[in-house]
Amino acid sequence: MSADEPSLTDALKARAKAEGFAASGICRPDAIPEAGRHLAGYLAAGYHGQMSWMERRAEWRGNPSVLWPAARSVIMLADAYTPEHDPLAVLKRPDRAAISVYALNEDYHGLIKKRLKRLGRWLINRVPGAEIKVFVDTAPVMEKPLAAAAGLGWQGKHTNLLSRQLGNWFFLGALFTTAELEPDQPTPKDGHCGRCRACLDICPTDAFPAPYQLDARRCISYLTIEHRGPVDTALRPDLGNRIFGCDDCLAVCPWNKFAVRARQAGYQARKDLRQLRLSDLASLDDTGFRALFRKSPVRRIGRDRLVRNVLYAIGNSGRIDLAPSAAARLGDGDGAVRDAARWALDRLRTATRARNSATERDANGANTP
């Protein structure tokens, strides 16, 4: 290699940028020795809730060297999906549905994986005999600790990865390889959050027992996506109109002033998915659900879980005009949906009685000499 020819690592990162990734970094498979212990503590506390898949193959998850012993390098890629709209604005419209930014268009898994595979093929062509494996959030890989070890950022107090160059609106992909690549310097573990508590304080359900800790059982993203069956009645009012995921802790992070524009057209919000009417969603059957959320990550939870969430949102809306939408689901084939419909109607009636009582008190007060 001549002095003017870029190193393999530099050429790889240039190629990753050409594929549309916002940033890339490299670490060794053994770069996260504390991950296994942290995962064990998380599981022991029960913070994972119904996500039993986190317990299965926990050894692989906590130690990438066990996942694929032949791997010598891990290439971590960041893919920006920064929204072009204010994701918190819809929360002020209780008759509309709030869907997490990442689910407003195509499923990111496919969008990232196909480019990871192209990058991997490029590497194989440059390093004869090299092998690769690509992972996008569907295998026992702890992407966030690996990304921090690869110098892409640090895990903020909301436990998501933060970057001084990207903010926190980005996905992560991993490319494991048998090729020996020069690792990057890891990001300091303390990061750059300082005294900021914006992400902790905005959480509607108090899902953070402490900074840098998340109890998924209270997290709205978990409750609306992963949790099966009825949601705890004490938590339902805090869901607001969020029917799939929650962006609150991400949206308020001050580091987003450095967020970069999403380069993939598939991440741009579809107009027909922004601020959907709760009344329309409550009436969806399975066919309508699949048609509306074609290619969207929302399809993963199925029609029943989505309608359950929609009914919680209707109950929280305070809009008695939405009561017929809830009543229509009292005979639904899914038990959690029927339960949500009853809860929504009870909550709407209670809210209406409270408003009527307040109006009557005000009227009587105005008429008092």
Report the biggest beta sheet as strand number plus sense, adding barrel if it closes: 4 strands, antiparallel
How many strand units? 8
Mean pLDDT: 94
How far the N terminus sits from the C terminus, by CA atoms, comes to 96 Å
Q: Biggest sheet, strands in spatial order? A: 1-2-7-4
Offer a few descriptive terms.
single chain, 369 residues, alpha+beta, two-stranded parallel sheet, 8 strands
Description:
The chain has 369 residues and is an alpha+beta fold. It is 37% helix and 9% strand. The chain is built from 14 helices and 8 strands. The chain has helices at 8-18, 35-44, 58-62, 64-67, 108-126, 143-149, 198-202, 220-226, 248-251, 278-282, 286-292, 302-317, 323-327, 335-367; strands at residues 23-27, 73-80, 98-99, 132-135, 154-155, 161-162, 170-177, 242-244. The strands form 3 sheets. Strands 1-2-7-4 form a 4-stranded antiparallel sheet, with helices on both faces. 43% of the residues are buried.
